[in-house]
Amino acid sequence: MGVTGPPGPVMDRDEVDRALARLGAEHKAVEDSLLALQDHAGRRLLEGAELTGTTKDRWAATEHTITLLWTYFDAYTQALNEAREVRGRRRWPGREELVELTERLRGESVTVSGTSSSQLAERFTLRQLVDRMNELYASSLDMVVTADAVWSALPARIDLLAAELNRTRSLAHSVGVRPGEHPAGDDLESITHELTALRAQVVTDPLAFWRPAMGSSAPGGGRPDTDRYDRAARALEDVRREIEAVLQVRQDSEARLLRLRDVLSRADRTLAEARAARGEVLAKIAASEVPVVSGPPTALQERLALAAEYRRHAQWHRLSPLLESLEREAEDELLRAREQLTAVTAPLAVRAELRGRLDAYKAKVARHGMAEDPLLIERYDAARRMLWSAPCDLRVAEQAVLRYQQAAAEALSGAGPVDGRGSR
């Protein structure tokens, strides 16, 4: 190698020795890093994988970069060995040797040829060459570590989820939940296709599933993108819960059907009681609007019979939603029956309340020794005849009770009797 003059002041012996020691340490560090990269599990996986997409393109570039790294390293090794050889000539190097060592250690003394198609050769100082190798190493390691991180995280998780999917599918088949026959069966089929496609893409293009960390320059800075996996896991969990609900139906369907029959029977009895009460009201209460009572819940009875049929044929996936809707509607039917009974018997309740009020005032008058008062006897008898006769006009009977109450109140207060209009 020709010497054209030292770059800057000529180094003395101590400076040369310190520089050679530092460069030797850097050489060892670079060599260890390259060997570690060569043995990295991610690099071996990349070399043996059938890659696609982004990963295929980046691995092709990274392979070229790794080859270039070794080329640079060989050039660095040769330049360092040549500098050591010059230094080893004499214990106390002369000026000519120090000038040459200064040029080798500080100048652009390393020429690397064939590194690119646009340049026949590149010239570096040893410092520049180390920086360049560190830069290329970081980008290569980033690619290898990223791919390895995705492969370490996602395929195993996908396989575990696929195993859970198979168990759920087996349970689903046991209760008749199949594709084309039940929405959960269709969901299982969709999740199966998604996991199969996801695993194939993760294996061949792991870099498509990497989310870099914002602002991070360290190799492998970021995390695997698990969004698609997470969506599939949530969908499977929803289906699993639905299948478990169907399994629960298989276990407790008989008890639920018995409860349903009981609720509908109570609703039917309540409606029958309301119809009988309506007849009584129409016969005993005059001038009263009595609501019509609906018929028995035949539609619900028919659906209950269908539910029993589903149970006999072990069609649990059909029985599950039917039971849920029947339970809601049966309770609603019982509530409506009770409301109708209350509405129908309201006039009888009013009459009973008036009778109770009349007798309560009579007892009060008797306790005060006024039971024989002619006016009170007259008004009591008038009210009683109205309340205990059929049909009973509730409006007129209520006025009669009020007149008796007013007369009793005035008699008890000593104010004297009043006429039917409430005046003295």
What's this entry about, in short?
By secondary structure, this protein is mainly α. Helices cover 73% and strands 4% of the residues.
Explain what you see.
By secondary structure, this protein is mainly alpha-helical. The protein has four domains: 130 residues; 101 residues, no CATH class; 95 residues; 66 residues. Helices cover 73% and strands 4% of the residues. The strands form three sheets. It has a two-stranded antiparallel ribbon with strand order 1-2. A two-stranded antiparallel ribbon has the order 3-4. A hairpin with a 7-residue loop joins strand 1 and strand 2. Helix 11 packs antiparallel against helix 12. The protein is elongated. The C terminus is likely disordered. Keywords: Coiled coil.
The biggest beta sheet, please?
A: 2 strands, antiparallel
Count of all domains: 4
Please give the count of helices.
12
Mean pLDDT: 87
| Morphology | elongated
Report the helical percentage: over 70%
Gyration radius, rounded: 49 Å
Number of β-strand runs: 6
Helix/strand/pairing category = mainly alpha
- Pattern of helices and strands: HHHHEEHHEEHEHHHHEH
Unreliable stretches (pLDDT < 50, length at least 5) are 415-424
The spatial strand order of the largest sheet comes to 1-2
N- to C-terminal distance: 143 Å
Query: What oligomeric state do these chains adopt?
Result: single chain
What is the percentage of strand-forming residues? under 5%
